[in-house]
Amino acid sequence: MTKQTGRGFPLPVASLFLVAVMGLPVLWLAYSGLVATSSGSNGLAATMLPTALRETGLLMASVGIITGVTGLLAAWLVSHFEFPLRRVFDWALVLPLAVPTYLAAYSYVEFLGFTGPIQTFIRSINGATTLKEYWFPDIKSQWGGALVLSSVLYPYVYVACRSFFLMQSTSLTIAARTLGAGSLRTFFTVTLPLSRPPLVVGMTLAMMEVVNDLGAVQYFGINAITAIIYSTWINRSDFGGAAQLAVTVVLVIGLLIIAEQRARRDRVYLANRDNRVPPARAQLRGAGKWVAFGFCLVLFAFGFGIPAGELFYLAFRLVLPETVSMTLTALVPTVMLATSGAVLTVIIGLFAAKQGRRGSVSGGAIRLATLGYAIPGTVLALGLLQPLGQADLWFNRMTMALWDWRPGLILSGSIAALLYVYSIRFLAVSHSTLDAAMKKRGDGMLDAGRVLGAGRLELLFKIDLPTLSPAILSAATLVFVEIVKELPATLLLRPLGIDTLATMVYSRANVGLFAQAALPALFIVLAGLIPVVLATRLGDRRKV
Amino acid sequence: MNKTTRLALALLSTVALTGIAAPAFAQSGEVNIYSYREQSLLQPLLDKFSAETGIKPNVLFAGDGLLERVAAEGELSPADVVLTVDIGNLVGAEEQGLTQKITTPVLDERVPQAFRATDDNWTALSLRSRVFYVSKDRVDATALTYDDLATPEWKGRICTRSGNHAYNIGLIAHYIAEHGIDAARVWLGKVRDNLAMAPSGNDRIQVKNILEGTCDLAITNTYYMGAMLHNEAEPEQKDWANSARIIYPDAETDGTQVNVAGGFIAKYAPNVENANTLIAFLLSDEAQAIYADTNYEFPVVPSAPINELVASWGTLKPSQVSLVDVASHRAEAAALVDELKFDEGPQN
């Protein structure tokens, strides 16, 4: 048991336990990697490693910058101003999140490719027959990858900043405006510095998604670090070497995150003392109103319009009855898994965010526990296969010895394994959202509650959950959508006979049958819409 | 917390806690299949199989990592039959001790020794080959060799997917098995410098590149030609395929590289008898015809007929290099791809 304030307690048992449970696959990978060194494996000896680090690093940096700028701007616009269709953009700008990166990659290659509408139109004008006769940028490149990935990843920043602005008292902004600062100056001197925590959270999530992505980067021909991990594992049959690489990547990312947090450590964010100042949105006039409108429209069109339109076109150009029936069979398991996974991950995220505030050992431990997001899904699943299989084996041996009964596989290849891997993968998503919200809120109200004699549960239900509800819903939404999209771990760990929408898409797209993959892919997007709409609607209704 | 929020959270929790019951697997009249091969090819085969035998197939379709899953599940694994592509997976499974002897007599009767394990621990079920798709408009050659790819004539005209993909690793390993590692290093370096661009996209995209005019020769698997020509859902792929014709490399010399799709019976298979029945069925004439006609592969059974369209591309003369030998050079092939930075594209 930790003390109420938690400071000065020597060993944060709860945090360490969480790290052990969440870190199991990484620990297993690290162990495999270390064991492999003795047999001469060296995954880090790859000639292509510097190239891969450079290309992955460039891609991460560019995606980080693009998503950071666009996501923050969009969140700032919809929460501080009134302009045409603002209410629609408010939730619509989250939608690109429902488009998996690999589908976005495919859609853009089709749309901007030689046989796509744009180039076909160009050829109809200039009469060319091959690409050698005219110039057109090749989307299958480093810059193309950065743009396409950013177009569907900016919602991480948008959602984090938006819920931050919603919870933020507008008193500071109002004060700045009263003192005569214009919108832009207020943005740069007040809003931007205050937004650093959610901005960094969003950018970090987007960049981790880049590291984890395999499908899109391969399609674009970018030499990413994941490709080397795969080649080491599959082609050289060197799992140990692959594990060494994967763990190194995780360590590097972990250090980056910790460095950023150290840089921010000494700043004190004003606790929100005045929660009752409703956000007053300034009415934009003249050109400004259309600039804001145009910006949001472009963002939406690139992140959602083009990929969803391409999928829609492919899905309904030829509807096969078997495609419809297989899509419908996958729908229920997908929604079930995503819902249970989201609830579980948010609960663990709340617990982790609470624990993480109990001192530096705890904080460090929790940060470690959230690194699962940076590991390629397949590698994470591989790190889980053996420990789970071993646990099943021990359990079966025990039941055999005691009651002569063999229950078979309980953990491996079961729903439990999937929920486990989802909570590891997406703890970072829920934890970071909730943690930023807690930092913003401060502990004043909780302290007041304690002084007034409220018990732990009462505090949780009367103060914690209500004050955090926008963040809780944001977190649950993000995780739900993530799970619906999640492919590699689901593919490898799911039970015999269960298919999700994402695995359906993969099984078709894998052999180049994108037209058959389009309908389940559209449903992934649709499934992602439900919680998005729900969360944004609920998040807006605050007591005034 | 207001009412709506509370209601929403309550709803979420209810749905979440309902959970999903994992299906239980009866031990009679079923066969559990772990498959690398995707459903649309497998489904017609399995429909016929269960209609004929009354055995119910349960399928887990996944990609890389299936062998690791079987290994991790150990003696509790429900897997009976594992279906996979690439010789590396079959040989690897046997080396990891995941296989058992296939006992159906059909194996000896119908599969040539070159296409199954010496101890019958795995078998090929169909064959495919990595060949050249050349532009109908810009290439006149009717016969080419793998070595031609390294000649100056093809500078800036070749397309292929990532060198790290299993299909290309198989091709490079085949070259190593045939000519040795040093010759392979020189050859692959020249092929890299003849690429039109850094490798990207999948096999079909390479053929699309021919239509676009960005390259004149694509290194791609045989069956994609059939798959694209018959792709009603995406008719534009017919145009891609129609821009190219197939040349079997080395057809007039050592023979063309061949890879396999195959399967094995898992060591701890709970339904061994049904597993053998399934393997026997997959080697039957009608199953081999499905491999040939729905997926445009070559049957592994010599007496089974080849699809007409496939036959129209010419005659496959398979290379005599042993598949097991090829599989043993895969790690070297991957090391070469890495060492030569093949995926960065041409260096001069």
Q: Which value, in Å, is the CA radius of gyration of chain B?
A: 23 Å
**What would you call the shape of chain B?**
globular
Flag low-confidence runs of chain A: 1-8
Structural class of chain A: mainly alpha
Strand tally of chain B is: 10
Mass-distribution shape of chain A: globular
Strand content range of chain B:
15-25%
Describe this entry's structure for a reader.
The complex is a heterodimer of chains A (544) and B (348). With 544 residues, chain A is mainly α. In chain A, 74% of the residues lie in helices and 1% in strands. Chain A is built from 22 helices and 2 strands. A two-stranded parallel ribbon of chain A has the order 1-2. In chain A, helix 1 crosses helix 12, helix 6 packs across helix 13 and helix 9 runs antiparallel to helix 12 (239-265). The radius of gyration of chain A is 24 Å and the shape is globular. Chain B contains 15 helices and 10 strands. In chain B, strand 1 (30-35), helix 2 (39-53) and strand 2 form a beta-alpha-beta unit. In chain B, helix 6 packs across helix 7 (181-194) and helix 8 (203-212) crosses helix 10. The longest helix of chain B is centred in the N-terminal third of the chain and has 16 residues, at 3-18. Mean pLDDT of chain B is 89; it is low at 11-27. At the A-B interface, helix 11, helix 14, helix 16, helix 19 and helix 20 of A face helix 1, helix 2, strand 2, helix 3 and helix 8 of B.
